[in-house]
Specification:
Layout: H1 2-34, H2 38-42, E1 97-101, E2 106-108, E3 118-120, E4 130-136, E5 140-145, E6 160-165, E7 169-173, E8 176-181, E9 186-191, E10 194-199, E11 203-205, E12 214-222, E13 235-241, E14 255-260, E15 266-269, E16 273-275, H3 277-283, E17 291-295
Parallel strand pairs: 8-17, 11-15, 14-16
Antiparallel strand pairs: 1-4, 1-7, 2-3, 4-5, 5-6, 8-9, 9-10, 12-13, 12-17, 13-14
Length: 296
């Protein structure tokens, strides 16, 4: 009996040892399945994000050539330069910036991939040297200019444009413009997008000598005592000229302007806009280069 009891105890002990070993093997197997080898974890390469390339600036390529502006025709109110293009978007907004030449003057291009066809002077007695930017690129700005592509009897006398290199000019911000509606008989000075109505009636051009439509800019403001009809009020000259007159009063130009006149109602002028004293005095305060929009 004792012999049998001892055998049973030994058998139970052996089974217990076998059970423990089995449990240890199962636990070890499960840990191996749940945790990949350390080498496998470090073998996965770290993905470095590919940087997004910066946007390539659009526009014409840079031009660093040196030009002698003395051999180029000047872009001024008297100039008639067939190489300079007429403004192809007369209703479009400007960039809100002005450009003024540096150094001896800024070469002007009709096509930035070709050669310059004129130059913008730093100073000119009749102004027109601070010009509004109508398109801005990295290396170039397109601007409105004084002068004409042709006189009316020979071609298109409308507002002209040209390209300047950014490196040749000083660019300044401007938040002022002038809006004229011929049909509504209104003139507004717009500052930072806020219009100020300065006129609700005025005189404009006749059918034979119409006021030019579209965008231009203030070329010069001056008091001209010999023009008695102004009664001592300033004249605000625009860069655009008459669409029908080659010249005026014996001169070679037919510049459009805002000015005072005793007769200032209806289609009676040679293209100028005749205003009352308060309106012309207000317009005389806007800086040269200010864009002016004349709407039908």
């Amino acid at each position: 009996m004792q012999k049998r009891t001892g055998w049973m105890i030994a058998l139970v002990a052996a089974l217990a040892v076998a059970l423990v070993l089995t449990l240890l093997w199962i636990i070890g197997s499960r840990q191996t399945e749940a945790s990949p080898p350390e080498q496998a974890a470090t073998a996965i390469p770290t993905q470095t994000p590919t940087p997004t390339p910066s946007e390539t600036p659009t526009g014409f390529p840079a031009n660093t050539s040196v030009y002698d502006v003395a051999v180029l025709p000047e872009a001024n109110v008297y100039a008639v330069n067939a190489a300079l293009p007429v403004d192809d978007a007369p209703d479009a907004p400007t960039s809100g910036q002005h450009a003024t030449a540096q150094g001896e003057g800024a070469p002007v291009w009709a096509d930035p991939t070709a050669e310059p066809v004129a130059y913008l002077p730093i100073e000119f007695v009749h102004g027109g040297t601070t010009v509004p930017v109508i398109e801005r690129q990295e290396h170039w700005v397109r601007v409105l200019l004084s002068g004409r592509q042709a006189i009316p009897s020979q071609g298109n006398p409308a507002q002209i444009t040209g390209w300047l290199r950014v490196a040749d000019v000083v660019i300044t911000e401007s938040a002022v413009s002038v809006e004229v509606s011929l049909s509504e008989r209104t003139v507004d000075i717009v500052r930072d997008g806020v219009p100020e109505r300065i006129a609700t009636d005025f005189a404009w051009g006749t059918e034979a000598t119409p006021t030019p439509i579209g965008r231009s800019f203030v070329m010069k403001t001056a008091v001209v005592p010999e023009f008695g009809y102004t009664r001592g009020h300033p004249i605000v000259y625009l860069a655009v000229q008459s669409p029908t007159l080659d010249g005026f009063a014996g001169g070679d130009v037919a510049v459009t302007a805002f000015h005072y006149h005793d007769a200032r109602a209806g289609a009676i002028s040679n293209g100028c806009i005749r205003l009352d004293p308060a309106a012309i005095d207000a317009l005389a305060q806007v800086p040269v280069g200010t864009p002016v929009y004349i709407r039908p």
